[in-house]
Amino acid sequence: MAFMSRFSRSRSNSRSPSRRDSEKGSPILSIAELERLLYTGKTACNHADEVWPRLYIGDQDIASNRQELIKLGITHILNCAQSKWRGGAENYEGMNITYHGIEAHDSPSFDMSVNFYPAAEFIHKALSMGGTVLVHCAVGVSRSATLVLAYLMIRQNMTLVEAIKTVKDHRGVTPNRGFLRQLSGLDSILRASRKTT
């Protein structure tokens, strides 16, 4: 409960003077404005930070530290930097961890949007079952953050700005510019679908 009350306070009501969405009064920001927003608030990162109840964003170090995973109570891992050289589910044998790997590149030209809904469903299912999820990539600031932002938008009905503010209050994240464009596109699609329902 302490996390939820801290979370509630962390969702700032301050608004940008930019274009606004009439549905929620949430700003629709340009990519440059989103980048400026990402550079405010918390900039430091631990190997893993809880950014939503039982949802952590982390790096490769935490993902390979079995003792820390046990200490955090991790039951599900979403690896956004899956590769044949680093291994995958076999790293967690005997730990009762459900693993899902995505081979994604931290490049503005990489299409991360194809992973938005599958990743959101993996996270949602794990949290719905009472699990604790680690979403990680190599450093834990771009690929993993992008998929957590998508989850918050798809399953928690947040706008992109709300999702960024929620995450950045707990971890410094910087999705690359291409990922921000894709998240902005998702934001537009979700806003339009909410207006019609």
Automatic annotation (TrEMBL):
<dbReference type="GO" id="GO:0033549">
    <property type="term" value="F:MAP kinase phosphatase activity"/>
</dbReference>
<dbReference type="GO" id="GO:0008138">
    <property type="term" value="F:protein tyrosine/serine/threonine phosphatase activity"/>
</dbReference>
<dbReference type="InterPro" id="IPR020422">
    <property type="entry name" value="TYR_PHOSPHATASE_DUAL_dom"/>
</dbReference>
<dbReference type="InterPro" id="IPR000340">
    <property type="entry name" value="Dual-sp_phosphatase_cat-dom"/>
</dbReference>
<comment type="function">
    <text>Dual specificity phosphatase able to dephosphorylate phosphotyrosine, phosphoserine and phosphothreonine residues, with a preference for phosphotyrosine as a substrate.</text>
</comment>
<comment type="function">
    <text>Dual specificity phosphatase able to dephosphorylate phosphotyrosine, phosphoserine and phosphothreonine residues within the same substrate, with a preference for phosphotyrosine as a substrate. Involved in the modulation of AMPK and MAPK1/2 signaling pathways.</text>
</comment>
<protein>
    <recommendedName>
        <fullName>Dual specificity protein phosphatase</fullName>
        <ecNumber>3.1.3.16</ecNumber>
        <ecNumber>3.1.3.48</ecNumber>
    </recommendedName>
</protein>
<dbReference type="InterPro" id="IPR029021">
    <property type="entry name" value="Prot-tyrosine_phosphatase-like"/>
</dbReference>
<dbReference type="InterPro" id="IPR020405">
    <property type="entry name" value="Atypical_DUSP_subfamA"/>
</dbReference>
<feature type="active site" description="Phosphocysteine intermediate">
    <location>
        <position position="137"/>
    </location>
</feature>
<dbReference type="InterPro" id="IPR016130">
    <property type="entry name" value="Tyr_Pase_AS"/>
</dbReference>
<dbReference type="GO" id="GO:0004725">
    <property type="term" value="F:protein tyrosine phosphatase activity"/>
</dbReference>
<comment type="similarity">
    <text>Belongs to the protein-tyrosine phosphatase family. Non-receptor class dual specificity subfamily.</text>
</comment>
<dbReference type="GO" id="GO:0004722">
    <property type="term" value="F:protein serine/threonine phosphatase activity"/>
</dbReference>
<keyword id="KW-0904">Protein phosphatase</keyword>
<keyword id="KW-0963">Cytoplasm</keyword>
<comment type="subunit">
    <text>Interacts with HSF4.</text>
</comment>
<dbReference type="Pfam" id="PF00782">
    <property type="entry name" value="DSPc"/>
</dbReference>
<dbReference type="InterPro" id="IPR000387">
    <property type="entry name" value="Tyr_Pase_dom"/>
</dbReference>
<dbReference type="InterPro" id="IPR003595">
    <property type="entry name" value="Tyr_Pase_cat"/>
</dbReference>
<feature type="domain" description="Tyrosine specific protein phosphatases">
    <location>
        <begin position="114"/>
        <end position="171"/>
    </location>
</feature>
<keyword id="KW-0539">Nucleus</keyword>
<feature type="compositionally biased region" description="Low complexity">
    <location>
        <begin position="1"/>
        <end position="16"/>
    </location>
</feature>
<dbReference type="GO" id="GO:0005794">
    <property type="term" value="C:Golgi apparatus"/>
</dbReference>
<keyword id="KW-0378">Hydrolase</keyword>
<dbReference type="GO" id="GO:0043409">
    <property type="term" value="P:negative regulation of MAPK cascade"/>
</dbReference>
<dbReference type="GO" id="GO:0005634">
    <property type="term" value="C:nucleus"/>
</dbReference>
<feature type="domain" description="Tyrosine-protein phosphatase">
    <location>
        <begin position="46"/>
        <end position="192"/>
    </location>
</feature>
<keyword id="KW-0333">Golgi apparatus</keyword>
<feature type="region of interest" description="Disordered">
    <location>
        <begin position="1"/>
        <end position="25"/>
    </location>
</feature>
